[in-house]
């Protein structure tokens, strides 16, 4: 019997959001996500992003998800993100195809010209993307580090004039961290140029996000100015992730990113977390070297694909 495949816009209720998070966790267990975080994203997404996750159901069961949004913070107009994940035990039943069709139809209606998609680096996933007109570009890695074995590099005292503070020290005024995040993001290797200029949007999407841990975020301050940081996330379990580690241009080459990340990792382990996750663009050699120094190991790779819509 041919399965019945349906696609609908994600509803912000607990059941839909939990289903979306469950699909993502099964298909992509290297990124922290919860149903509560999905619901928060729906409520607080920037209006210019036209953010609209989709759910695919096969015979009524939620088996596929799509993140669909316009890239609103790039100087180049007409770009969009489309990331599709299907539960591994339900691949090949039409959910992915239905999600691509529905998402591209929506993006065409929004005037999008180029669609960017991260695709897990497996023959079947890459073939799926290529059959639909997507061409491969850059790659990125997911990395994992066990925290329970006590193998972290020892903490070193910071040099004179340097201190390491938790993110909670900036609770009253996180704007200096916004400026630092914006500067480091603009230097991240990417096939899309981003301009982070909206402080209120950053507060909602990053600083006040329910997965962000101010306690485990670490900031290196040099002569009173934030110079490097690592932004941490937790999902209420035993896993911890870093979503950005960077150093301001004027302070690079001094080991400050290592200092920030090591401080955060040690506090994560002290808090009882047992697994550290992070992601790395394949072209970011300095950050890959730092993560290798900590003992992170690559656990999966994904490849960015792009399609020009007719």
Ordered list of secondary-structure elements with their pairings:
Elements: E1 5-9, H1 14-27, H2 35-44, E2 54-58, E3 61-70, E4 79-86, H3 95-109, E5 114-120, H4 123-131, E6 135-146, E7 162-166, H5 175-186, H6 199-207, E8 212-222, E9 225-234, E10 239-247, H7 256-270, E11 275-281, H8 285-294, E12 297-308
Parallel strand pairs: 4-5, 10-11
Antiparallel strand pairs: 1-2, 2-3, 3-4, 5-12, 6-11, 6-12, 7-8, 8-9, 9-10
Structural commentary:
The two termini are 34 Å apart. Helix 1 (14-27) crosses helix 2. Strands 1-2-3-4-5-12-6-11-10-9-8-7 form a 12-stranded mixed beta sheet, with helices on both faces. It is built from 8 helices and 12 strands. The protein is globular. The longest helix has 15 residues, at 95-109. The chain is an alpha+beta fold and 310 residues long. The chain has 2 domains: 5-112, 3-Layer(aba) Sandwich (Aminopeptidase), CATH 3.40.630; 145-301, Aminopeptidase, CATH 3.40.630. 30% of the residues lie in helices and 33% in strands.
Shape: globular
- Backbone structural class: alpha+beta
Number of domains: 2
From the N-terminal CA to the C-terminal CA, the straight-line distance is 34 Å
Counted beta strands: 12
- Show unreliable segments: none
CATH superfamily of the largest domain: Gcn5-related N-acetyltransferase (GNAT)
Features of this protein?
33% strand; globular; twelve-stranded mixed β-sheet; Aminopeptidase; 310 residues; 30% helix; alpha+beta
Brief synopsis:
The chain is of the alpha+beta class and 310 residues long. The chain is built from 8 helices and 12 strands.
